[in-house]
TrEMBL record:
The keyword Transferase applies. Pathway: Cofactor biosynthesis; biotin biosynthesis. This is 8-amino-7-oxononanoate synthase. Homodimer. It comes from Pelomonas cellulosilytica. It comes from the Bacteria.
Length: 404
């Protein structure tokens, strides 16, 4: 069979299950409004939770950084790609996480995917057992597959199952690996319970706070601040392309852990450092996260979450035959579980016709039968924006119920 025939058959199978994905091209705009095919859409799909990507101060800082440092970094960090801007970002983050991680040091990466790959492959050697949460992000799953460590998966937020698995482990080193905010459900990992188990069983806790950094905690430090955690066993990954409004990621951990990553993480060592202009602009982003704009947008997010959840619950009550449901989320990720792939895509299309961009999420990203609209809020949405979404969903629900 030729490769093209083989791939065409696989593509046809995806299409038959309503699982084909499509790239959509935005003309311009940033969250929460974007033009697509010449039409302005109100977005409930960006992870730019604080709306910082649209901040003029960030654009100015990018331009200033580009004038000072040029376009790209030109080399991997250990060769010549590491600039004073990279160092300042790492120093700021080390200071931010010092209250949570004794002897904290931070190290930057180009993406969160790469940061997760670095931590899990470098630390997950043949002496290690990785305890991986069932709903972990794909990058953590891929990283665990690549690591030399034994991998044991534990069921979603199930501390008892994890305890049993830890108690049975004979590995020299134990690494518990979890998302802090689950990206497709929006619920929080039971981090205090996970850390208590790490202490009890001499394990280390890798926390991927991609969706908590900038959002959770009084000053936006994320899940560690939200739960008030402190331990040298915490190994934190944060991303900078979401609430920070730019790009990149970091690992914050005990200095010995970070020093080892610098020596051993192959995807860090053998990959070009991020553009210094981005690092320069991240300093502006951090000031915004830390300042009154960050505090105001975090407070707005909480108010909008409540408004959206109340509205969605009322909608579900009005249309019980559709079988829609919510998750146990107290974050800006508020999914509406619809069930079928074709149904969720029809719903997303109906919303788009009404001027709203909300993505339908299907397997394998979520379990079969659990396709959903992944509604995400932005700190620059207004209450009227949320009401617009609820009204459009109400019309779409009535139409789907009639058609059923
Ligand atoms: N972890 C989680 C939980 C994520 O949701 C994502 C991105 N969607 C990543 C890691 C990867 O981060 P990045 O997009 O910076 O590669």
């Amino acid at each position: 069979m030729s490769l093209l025939d083989h791939l065409s058959a696989k593509l046809a199978a995806l299409s038959a299950q309503s699982l084909t994905r499509q790239l959509r091209t935005a003309d311009d705009g940033t969250a929460p409004r974007q033009r697509v095919n010449g039409r302005e859409l109100l977005m409930f799909c960006s992870n730019d939770y604080l709306g910082l990507a649209a901040e003029p101060a960030i654009a100015d800082a990018l331009a200033e950084g580009a004038h000072r440092w040029g376009g790209g970094s030109g080399a991997s960090p250990l060769v010549s790609g590491h600039s004073a801007a990279h160092e300042a970002v790492a120093d700021t983050l080390a200071g931010w996480f010092a209250p949570h991680i004794p002897q904290a040091r931070a190290l930057g990466f180009c993406t969160g995917y790469m940061a997760n790959l670095a931590v899990v492959t470098a630390l997950g050697d043949e002496h290690t057992e990785i305890f991986s949460e069932q709903l972990n992000h794909a990058s953590l799953i891929d990283a665990a597959r690549l690591a030399k460590a034994k991998v044991t998966r534990f069921p979603h937020v199930d501390l008892d199952a994890l305890r049993t698995a830890l108690a049975a482990s004979t590995a020299k080193v134990r690494l518990i690996v979890t998302d802090a905010v689950f990206s497709m459900d929006g619920d929080l990992a039971p981090l205090p319970g996970l850390l208590a188990l790490a202490e009890e069983f001499d394990a280390w806790l890798v926390v991927d706070d991609a969706h908590g950094f900038g959002v959770l905690g009084a000053t936006g430090r994320g899940a560690l601040e939200h739960f008030g955690l402190r331990s040298e066993r915490l190994i934190l990954v944060g991303t900078l392309g979401k609430a920070a409004g730019l790009a990149g990621a970091f690992v914050a951990a005990h200095t010995t852990v970070v020093e080892y990553l610098l020596q051993a993480a192959r995807n860090f060592i053998f990959s070009t450092a991020s553009p210094p202009a981005i690092e320069h602009a991240l300093l502006t982003s951090f000031a915004l996260i830390d300042g009154p704009a960050g505090a105001q947008r975090r407070a707005n997010l909480v108010a909008l979450q409540v408004r959206l959840r109340d509205g969605l619950m009322a909608l579900i009550d009005r249309h019980p035959r559709l079988g829609w449901s919510l998750t146990d989320s107290s974050t800006p990720i508020q999914p509406l579980i619809v069930g079928g792939n074709a149904e969720v895509m029809a719903l997303a299309a109906a919303l788009e016709a009404a001027g709203l961009r909300v993505p339908g999420i299907r397997p394998p990203t979520v379990a079969a039968g659990k396709a959903r609209l992944r509604i995400t809020l932005c700190g620059t949405h207004t209450a009227a924006d949320v009401d617009t979404l609820l009204a459009a969903l109400g019309r779409a629900a009535a139409a789907q119920e009639q058609a059923a």
